[in-house]
Amino acid sequence: MIGLIQRVSRASVSVAGECIGEIDRGLLLLLGIERDDTQASADKLLKKMLAYRVFSDVDGKMNLNVAQVGGGVLAVSQFTLAADTSKGLRPGFSSAATPDKARELYDYFVERLRAAHPKVATGEFAADMQVSLINDGPVTFTLKS
């Protein structure tokens, strides 16, 4: 499982011109699910993402996690994160989970995220989404389980 997290001042996701999820300060999580991923992979990534220290403390050092700053999490499924880009000029998706498995694990991840964190918004699985954000920093990290 691959999570691309971005520290944001604000982020939103829209489908067909309608905003379906938005947060103020927090993390935008783009979530890529690979064929070998399991619920254990989801749990590991979730725990790491929520604990990851990307927000500044009073000394300006990245020592605080999203919960410590009262931030939100906007979780968006991102199929293309599972792409193999090591060869040629076109991505391959053989390492990506099947749509059914990916949906199951995405739903599981979101359910666990909502149980663990008070401010959660999401995109719509497999939809054509438009994501808007103000990346604070910019600060972006790739997390893998």
UniProtKB/TrEMBL annotation:
Motif residue range(s): Gly-cisPro motif, important for rejection of L-amino acids: 137-138
Broadest EC class assigned to this enzyme: hydrolase
SUPFAM superfamilies for this protein: DTD-like (SSF69500)
Residue ranges of the TM segments: none
Entry keywords, A to Z: Cytoplasm, Hydrolase, RNA-binding, tRNA-binding
Catalytic activity, EC: 3.1.1.96, 3.1.1.-
Keyword DNA damage: no
Listed CDD domains: Dtyr_deacylase
Swiss-Prot/TrEMBL catalytic activity: glycyl-tRNA(Ala) + H2O = tRNA(Ala) + glycine + H(+); a D-aminoacyl-tRNA + H2O = a tRNA + a D-alpha-amino acid + H(+)
InterPro entries to which the protein is assigned, alphabetical: Daa-tRNA_deacyls_DTD, DTD-like_sf
Compartments in which it is found: Cytoplasm
Gene Ontology cellular-component annotations: cytoplasm
Coiled-coil parts of chain: none
GO biological process: D-amino acid catabolic process
General function of this protein: An aminoacyl-tRNA editing enzyme that deacylates mischarged D-aminoacyl-tRNAs. Also deacylates mischarged glycyl-tRNA(Ala), protecting cells against glycine mischarging by AlaRS. Acts via tRNA-based rather than protein-based catalysis; rejects L-amino acids rather than detecting D-amino acids in the active site. By recycling D-aminoacyl-tRNA to D-amino acids and free tRNA molecules, this enzyme counteracts the toxicity associated with the formation of D-aminoacyl-tRNA entities in vivo and helps enforce protein L-homochirality.
Protein name per the record: D-aminoacyl-tRNA deacylase
